[in-house]
């Protein structure tokens, strides 16, 4: 709709709602209307794709969002199950950044991440179970394999860190840290168009795992700081 006078601003059409958010809203409504309880199984991926008329990647993005909130879990070969009741009020934690000044936004986020991520490593070192260590090491070995093969391993790096957050047994760590990381991924795939961003931090993922496996919170904190210090150095260097 346009204003009558040429010197008045134009009222622009509303943007189309993000498809993944539409799916999370629809799933939250389904859980409420079906009165699902903890332990109940959600519809299969193919069923959701057909019912909602969206692609597999959109369904999986919505599922990952629920997993980050700690309200569902996917069991290999079995399906996706509800861990706790969910509604629209529990599924959105929006963060906003000024992406016109990406360097400053990255550094500001890193300040917050440093505190939360170091604490996550320390808590994981105290609370990790034998099962947690198996999962973290599996993610680490896959990250190392891909990194040595391709020289970069973004998705595998994220999977490793998510496994560490899960080992805290506090879903807020994963929710907050994944949300921060996910917000930026909407705007860039490789920071400053550099495949080698934070590549120097690669060895410290193994030493972080070793600290968590040893049940040493202070060592886990120190290794996490080494990773984040390299990220900060690369942000400053690559954005000159």
Automatic annotation (TrEMBL):
GO MF terms, alphabetically ordered: DNA binding; DNA-binding transcription factor activity
UniProt KW keywords: DNA-binding, Transcription, Transcription regulation
Signal peptide (UniProt feature, chain positions): none
HTH gntR-type domain ranges (all copies): 17-85
UniProt cross-references to InterPro entries, sorted A to Z: GntR_C, TF_FadR/GntR_C, Tscrpt_reg_HTH_GntR, WH-like_DNA-bd_sf, WH_DNA-bd_sf
Classification via CDD domains: WHTH_GntR
Protein name: FadR family transcriptional regulator
Lineage summary: Bacteria, Pseudomonadati, Pseudomonadota, Alphaproteobacteria, Hyphomicrobiales
């Amino acid at each position: 709709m346009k204003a009558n006078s040429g010197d008045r601003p134009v009222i622009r059409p509303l943007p189309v709602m993000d498809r993944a958010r539409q799916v999370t809203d629809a799933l939250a409504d389904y859980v409420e209307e079906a009165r699902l309880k903890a332990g109940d199984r959600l519809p299969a991926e193919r069923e959701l794709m057909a019912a909602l008329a969206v692609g597999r990647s959109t369904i999986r993005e919505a599922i990952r969002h629920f997993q980050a909130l700690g309200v569902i879990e996917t069991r290999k070969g079995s399906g996706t199950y509800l861990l706790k009741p969910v509604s629209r009020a529990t599924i959105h934690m929006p963060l906003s950044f000024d992406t016109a000044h990406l360097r400053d936004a990255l550094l500001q986020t890193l300040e917050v991440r440093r505190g939360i991520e170091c604490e996550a490593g320390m808590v994981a070192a105290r609370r990790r179970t034998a099962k947690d260590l198996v999962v973290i090491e599996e993610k680490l070995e896959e990250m190392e394999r891909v990194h040595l093969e391709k020289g970069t391993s973004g998705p595998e790096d994220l999977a490793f860190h998510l496994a560490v957050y899960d080992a805290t047994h506090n879903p807020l760590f994963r929710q907050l840290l994944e949300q921060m990381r996910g917000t930026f991924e909407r705007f860039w795939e490789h920071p400053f168009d550099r495949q080698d961003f934070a590549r120097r931090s690669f060895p410290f993922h193994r030493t972080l795992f070793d600290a968590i496996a040893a049940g040493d919170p202070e060592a886990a904190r120190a290794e996490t700081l080494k990773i984040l210090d390299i990220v900060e150095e690369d942000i400053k260097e690559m954005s000159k």
